[in-house]
Design a protein that fits this description.
mainly alpha, about 80% helix
């Protein structure tokens, strides 16, 4: 009876927070907030140009930089989608992590545009070179994510477990992922409120004269959130041992954990090493998925 009530509670929670209808409402809400934040940012820039607001930061002087703000809210929605897909497919869940990192890079490009100087010696100028590397990185990540999803869809929306696992075992593992995803919802909300309120207080105290204050928002939210994802990924990896002992499945799940760790480490570095770690993480995840599917094909032939 207790088990039945627990299952009912989890399913009710999923319908409330992670259902397709909630996903649709969340998408519309985030879009409205993103548009409002964009207009607000443009208003602050206008006030700065008219002399009502004093700031030396290009973030409040260049209208192009205003695109940075709505992208921050779109990133929050991507984090929600990550939780939404966790119970459905581990591969899609990992893919959403890659999407988040790509959007972070693209958002950084809009900030780079505000610092663009367009000098003749393009590759000798730090700001122009950073913009170029971020732009190339976003294109490479976009292509890699396409290849990643292409491999999943060709396989028929890859499941977490291999075909020799019983239907009951699959159901138990999916329920575990549903439970974890639901538990992560309040964690995400609490972390977002704590991180963004702390960032706002820091901005009010120090001002926006330093553009690095904007980049710091990644460290106080996404850095901590990816730490939580590592814990979740390791938990899922250990739990998968109960349902499958096949070598290539274990290696695939372990590889995804390593990929997440590489993404987490990227927040602790800056410059070109940050781009290298992000691209390297996605390449590693793509190769892990590709090799896993080669093992699957070999198993089917046997």
């Amino acid at each position: 009876m207790t088990s039945t009530r627990f299952h009912t509670t989890i399913e009710t929670g999923l319908q409330l927070f992670l259902s397709p209808s909630t996903k649709k409402r969340s998408e519309q809400t985030i879009l409205l907030i993103a548009i409002a934040s964009y207009l607000l940012h443009l208003g602050l820039i206008a006030m700065s140009h008219l002399g009502y607001l004093s700031s030396e930061s290009k973030f409040l002087n260049n209208p192009i930089s205003a695109i940075y703000t709505p992208f921050s809210f779109i990133l929050i929605y991507e984090v929600y989608l990550l939780l939404f897909y966790l119970p459905q497919s581990t591969s899609f869940y990992i893919g959403k992590q890659y999407e988040i990192m790509t959007l972070i890079v693209i958002r950084r490009i809009f900030k780079d545009l505000g610092d663009l100087e367009l000098v003749k010696d393009w590759f000798q100028n730090e700001n122009d070179l950073r913009f170029t590397i971020d732009a190339v990185t976003s294109l490479v990540l976009f292509l890699l994510i396409y290849l990643f999803y292409h491999k999943i869809l060709r396989r028929g929306q890859s499941a977490t477990l291999t075909m020799d696992v019983s239907h009951t075992a699959k159901g138990q593992f999916v329920f575990l992922k549903k439970t974890i995803a639901l538990l992560l919802v309040p964690v995400l909300i609490a972390l977002a409120i704590y991180s963004f309120s702390g960032w706002i207080l820091m901005v009010l105290k120090n001002g926006l004269s330093d553009a690095s204050m904007l980049a710091y928002i990644n460290n106080i939210f996404f850095d901590e959130f990816f730490t939580i994802l590592i814990v979740v990924d390791v938990l899922l990896l250990l739990a998968s041992f109960f349902y499958s002992d096949r070598f290539h499945t274990i290696i695939r799940n372990s590889g995804f954990v390593l990929s997440t760790i590489m993404l987490k480490v990227s927040f602790s570095v800056s410059g070109y090493l940050n781009n290298i770690l992000i691209v390297g993480s996605v390449i590693f995840g793509l190769l892990i998925l590709y090799i896993h599917q080669l093992f699957e094909k070999a198993s089917l032939k046997e």
